[in-house]
Design a protein that fits this description.
The complex is a heterodimer of chains A (121) and B (679). With 121 residues, chain A is mainly beta. Chain A is 8% helix and 14% strand. In chain A, the strands form 3 sheets. A two-stranded antiparallel sheet of chain A has the order 1-4. In chain A, strands 2-3 form a two-stranded antiparallel ribbon. Chain A has a two-stranded antiparallel ribbon with strand order 5-6. Chain B has helices at 38-49, 88-98, 110-129, 172-182, 260-268, 358-363, 380-393, 398-407, 479-499, 507-518, 529-543, 550-565, 576-601, 656-663, and strands at 24-34, 54-57, 74-75, 165-166, 186-188, 191-198, 207-214, 220-230, 272-273, 279-280, 304-305, 314-315, 321-322, 353-354, 371-373, 415-419, 443-444, 452-453, 466-468, 547-548, 612-613, 626-633, 636-643. The chains are: A mainly beta (121), B alpha+beta (679). At the A-B interface, helix 2 and strand 5 of A face helix 7, helix 8 and strand 16 of B.
């Protein structure tokens, strides 16, 4: 019997989406993201220095503070739910795009005005 | 048996923090600040400068908490900045003239608005001193219409009156937090305040501290203070609660803003005004704030084009077409200032907008859907100001919009953002129609719409020892209002504390509160917090929505009381986090009762309060041009009223400046010297 035939009795997803994704390879377990989260979406992993647990995703405000304060680059990513994904159109070509589409245009790399890491502030 | 209520067993992971519901912590201070958001931080810093011992309590972490906790991009009411075109008196008068009677925006509370107009620029210079860029320090905007060459300040919206400053405040809260640490302000994070302590435990007595519990460990806290400043936010999610609707969770106000401040002050016996005011909620179905194209607020005054690239014209307040982009930011002849909102707005402060009959012209086929915000077509520096500066720094937009959008390929120089359109009757506050509203029974009192604590020229409530600032005040408002009134209230509460005695806490008040707070953790089964919360919302939807009437409000009050004594005694919590959510629902229940009591008391409809009494349909009759005031007493609720300009009536002087000068509490330690600002 294949593994995928093993089903489980679990509750439904707590929220429409995973709100933050933490890359376990980069996470050092410093818990700063847990400390800045205003609604305690994240809680410490009982195993010290391990990736925090997203315990209350249904309470995320999508403020991005966990992203801002994470000291490791490319470790926490906010997941924009499909309902909040926008579209846009290229003024010249008329081509239409959607946030999250397959084969998106290349990233726009100019930082916002006044950009600096939160640690420099 | 549901999974939710399944018995806990050895496979259930234990709570990650050590819990001790029986532990009691006692802390004594001079000035206690409830809520460490923008108002609370400015209050703490100014009280500390006066020499008082200051303790700030926050349900989250002061580093990032509050509506301004994840950034700010523009700063209102800086009337005394060197480039400003208008005086504080002008600004208050202008709003007084065009918003006669009861007003629901931040401008309704004109004493606090005057304080803001006088101190907003000082507060902004404080923030600059703490490390936030409030000017074009890198000369990226040289030559822009909105830049003052001498000061390098950059203005938004109205480039003539120059009172709204564009700021690079994505991490402004950290700057406030670091300054508090530097000044040795004490901070207690993750504690929810559930009651104010009063002298002798009496309703209406002097406020002498507060109680709370730690939302991770469950420990109980007693805070003893000579004065207390409540700086909490408005009550959100009182009519609609859904964790499935992401939009409902992405509204402007911090989700910790549930109305705890309202509840504790009301229970202590402080007077509240205008609690009946509210409006339809902009949450629910909306996109992330500022995350879609539009022509107002942060995106003001972006060119909007239709599906074929045809520009939607802009018009001045008389409906005359504005031919070029630069003039969208200019005052009309003889106008002192404008408000960057869509019509209908009072003529005096109506700014340029898209054509007023856009809906009809869409329906006639002249403009073809969908619409787009044509940032690429805007002058380069305006485009950079809107997307690079404002969306790049506004609350929740740096890491919530700018970063994911640009990572996903959105290029403001090439791409036109979708600008969603709704029929006018469904449109939100920022027409033309980019903000998805829910059904009409979904309402809110947040974002400047609701009532708050009655305050005087000391920013004191009607209770001795209890002060207020920011959104908790009657008619509280935006970031600059929170900062300015925070400064002011901080000074006044410190002055009082430094001359007042510490009063012993009433033991029975403490034991009753502990019993009330911990009841849900002593139950092992029952009703979960979400059902409890959603149930309250249902009562608000059914009995206190758009159409209000005596009988519906009466039933609504009965139902809230019924839920409190029935289901409210069945809610259960399995960890301190759930306990906090339950206690928040109890706060909302109290706020719901306050709103229904005030709604019953106003026996007239009101446009300004967005308040419709089916049984009293006359809109704003002159007799009702006053605040409805509610207050809790030992034996029930008392109702009274106050004139709309009570702050200019006896015992106060009849003009703003005289009152401000007599009461502001500034001394050599808290006065900003002109020209002192960092360059």
């Amino acid at each position: 019997m294949s593994d995928y035939n093993q089903a489980y009795m679990v509750t439904n997803p707590l929220a429409p989406c995973t709100v933050v994704e933490i890359n376990p390879d980069n996470c050092t377990g410093c818990r700063l993201c847990i400390e800045v989260c205003r609604t305690d979406v994240l809680v410490p992993n009982p195993e010290t220095l391990m990736v925090p647990i997203v315990l209350f995703p249904d309470e995320c405000w999508f403020c991005g503070d966990c992203v801002a304060y994470c000291p490791e680059p490319d470790t926490i990513k906010m997941h924009v739910p499909i309902t909040e994904k926008v579209g846009w159109k290229d003024k010249e070509s008329g081509d239409r795009y959607r946030l999250g589409m397959k084969n998106p245009p290349p990233p726009y790399t100019t930082p916002p005005v006044g950009w600096k890491s939160v640690r420099e502030k | 048996m549901s999974i939710y209520e399944a018995p806990l067993n050895e496979n259930t992971p234990p709570w990650p923090y050590t819990v001790d519901y029986d532990k009691v912590n006692e802390v004594t201070t001079d000035v206690l600040i409830v809520g460490g958001g923008t108002a609370g931080c400015h209050a703490a810093i100014n009280a500390r400068k006066k020499g008082a011992k200051v303790l700030v309590i926050d349900k989250a972490n002061v580093l990032t908490s509050g509506c301004g906790g994840s950034g700010v991009d523009h700063w209102h009411n800086a009337c005394t900045n060197p480039a400003s075109g208008i005086s504080p008196e002008d600004q208050v008068d202008e709003f007084q003239n065009c918003r006669k009677g009861i007003a629901t925006s931040e401008y309704g509370s004109r004493a606090s608005h005057y304080i803001t107009a006088r101190e907003s620029w000082d507060a902004l210079q404080d923030v600059e001193e703490w490390g936030i860029d409030i000017r074009d320090v890198n000369d990226e905007f040289v030559g822009a219409d909105f830049r003052d060459e001498e000061t390098k300040l950059m203005f938004a919206y109205d480039y003539d009156s120059r009172t709204v400053v564009r700021v690079q405040g994505a991490y402004i809260k950290k700057a406030m937090h670091d300054e508090m640490r530097r000044l040795d302000v004490q901070i207690q994070n993750r504690v929810m305040i559930t009651s104010l302590l009063t002298a002798g435990g009496k309703i209406g007595g002097r406020v002498i501290g507060a109680t709370g519990f730690h939302i991770r460990t469950g420990e109980f806290y007693i805070f003893k203070a000579k004065s207390t400043i409540v700086c909490t936010g408005p009550s959100t999610r009182l009519w609609v609660f859904s964790t499935e609707l992401v939009g409902a969770n992405s509204i402007h106000d911090d989700p910790n803003d549930v109305g705890d401040g309202n509840a504790i002050c009301y229970n202590a016996g402080a007077e509240f005004g205008q609690m009946e005011a509210g409006g339809r909620t902009v949450g629910g179905f909306r996109y992330f704030g500022y995350g879609t194209g539009n022509a107002h607020n942060t995106w003001f005054a972006c060119t909007i084009v239709d599906s074929n690239g045809k520009e939607v014209p802009w018009v001045d307040r008389d409906g005359k077409e504005i031919k070029n982009v630069a003039d969208r930011y200019r005052l009309a002849k003889g106008q002192k200032m404008f408000y960057h909102g869509p019509p209908p707005h009072p003529y005096e402060t109506q700014g340029p907008t898209l054509i007023h009959d856009l809906a009809e012209r869409i329906e006639s086929g002249e403009f073809v859907l969908p619409f787009y915000a044509d940032l690429p077509g805007m002058p380069e520096l305006e485009r950079k100001a809107i997307f690079g500066l404002m969306v790049g720094n506004e609350g929740k937009t740096r890491h919530g919009v700018y970063e994911p959008y640009t990572d996903g390929g959105y290029d403001p120089n090439k791409h036109m953002m979708q600008a969603n359109v709704l029929p006018p009757e469904e449109a939100g506050i920022h027409k033309p129609w980019w903000n998805g509203q829910g059904p009409p029974q979904w309402r809110e009192t947040a974002f400047g719409g609701g009532g708050g604590l009655v305050y005087d020229w000391d920013c004191r409530s009607t209770l001795e020892g209890l002060y207020t600032a920011g959104n908790q005040m009657l008619g509280g408002g935006n970031h600059s209002q929170s900062a300015s009134t925070g400064r002011y209230a901080g000074r006044k509460a410190a002055d009082y504390a430094l001359s007042a005695d510490q009063v012993e806490v009433d033991k029975s008040q403490l034991s009753e509160e502990r019993e009330r707070v911990y009841a849900p953790v002593k139950r092992s089964a029952g009703i979960g917090w979400k059902e409890f919360q959603a149930g309250l919302c249902r009562v608000m939807q059914d009995y206190c929505a758009t159409y209000k009437a005596e009988e519906t409000l009466k039933i609504g009050l009965e139902w809230l009381e019924s839920i409190k004594e029935s289901e409210g005694q069945q809610v259960f919590a399995r960890n301190p986090h759930e306990l906090a959510r339950i206690m928040e629902a109890f706060s909302r229940l109290t706020v719901g009762q306050m709103i229904m009591e005030a709604s019953r008391a106003r026996k007239a409809s009101s446009r300004a309060c967005d308040f419709e009494r089916v049984d009293y349909p006359e809109v704003d009759p002159p007799d009702w041009d006053k605040y409805v005031i509610i207050k809790r007493e030992e034996d029930g609720v008392s109702i009274s009223d106050k004139p709309c300009d009570y702050w200019l009536q006896e015992p106060y002087a009849s003009n703003y400046a005289e009152n401000y000068d007599a009461h502001n509490g500034l001394d050599e330690k808290t006065t900003r010297v002109i020209g002192e600002a960092a360059e």
